[in-house]
Amino acid sequence: MGTNIEGKVIVITGASSGLGLAAARLLSAQGARLVLGARRVERLQQLTRELDGGEARTLAVATDVTRREEVKHLVDTAVRKFGRIDVMVNNAGLMPQAPLERLTVDDWDRMIDVNLKGVLYGIAAALPHMQAQKSGQFVNTSSIAGHKVMLNGAVYSATKYAVRALSEGLRQEVKPWNIRTTVISPGAVDSELPGSVTEADMASRLLDFYEANAIPAESFARAVAFAIGQPEDMDVNEIVFRPTRQVA
C-alpha cells in the first residue's frame, strides 16, 4: 500500500537537527525528494550524503529563515531542480524562556523572527508555486505551548499560538488551489530547543523537564509523514501530541 509520499518534492527548514532531521530521514526512507534548509550547511551536507545514496534526490541549501530572500532561494532551488514543490515544512524554531520582567528583548525579537516570520517567509516563497500547480501542502510546526501558555514562556507561546492562527487562516484561503494545510503541535520531543535558552536558571529547569519527559524526534517525523501521506482529498489540519508521561 502506497503512502502518497514517494516522489513528492518536500522542502524542510530547520533540517540540520532535531525534528527537521528526523523528518528528513523518515520522508527520504519513504521515497521523497528533499530540499533541506538550515544555517549549519555542513550538517546539511552530511545529512544529504547520508540520505542520497548517489541518486541526486536530496539537496542542502544554506538558509536563515529570518532572511526572506534565503527562504525564497531555498524554495526556488527545489522548483528548479525537481520542477515543483509538493510540501513546505516550516519547522525552524527557537524557545528561549524567561519571565517577562527580565526584559530579554533580544530573545523576544529572535523568536518572532524565527518562529513566526520564518513561517510567513516560507508561505510567501512556496505559495505562488503551489497556486500555479493547483496543489501542495504546508506543514507548520507549532507546539503544546501554542495551546497552553507556558510559565516563563509567554513570548514563545505567543509565537506558537500565532502559527496556529496563521495556519488556520491559510487553510481557509487556499481552497481554490487544492492546497492542504497542517499544523503540528508537539510536546516535549528530543531536540536542540532547550539549547536556545539564554537564561541559565531557565535552561537548567527546562533541561530537567526534557530529561524527565522527552520522547525521540522520530515521533514528530511520524506525525509529519501521516499528514503528508493521506490521499489528496483528505486535509489533516492539526495534530497535537505529547509524551504519554507529560502532564503539562
So what's the overall shape? globular
| Terminal-residue CA separation | 37 Å
- Low-confidence segments, given as residue ranges, are none
The count of helical stretches stands at: 7
Strand segment tally: 7
The neighbouring-strand order within the major sheet is: 3-2-1-4-5-6-7
How many domains? The number is 1
CATH level-four homologous superfamily name: NAD(P)-binding Rossmann-like Domain
Fold-level CATH name: Rossmann fold
- Residues in β-strands, percent: 15-25%
**Rg (C-alpha, Å):** 17 Å
Biggest sheet details: 7 strands, parallel
Helix proportion range: 40-55%
What's the mean pLDDT score? 95
CATH architecture: 3-Layer(aba) Sandwich
CATH class type: Alpha Beta
Structural class: alpha/beta
Task: Summarize this structure briefly.
The chain is of the alpha/beta class. The protein has helices spanning 18-29, 41-52, 68-82, 105-133, 154-173, 200-213, 218-229; strands spanning 9-13, 33-38, 58-62, 87-90, 136-141, 179-186, 238-241. It starts with 8 loop residues before the first strand and ends in a 7-residue tail after the last strand.
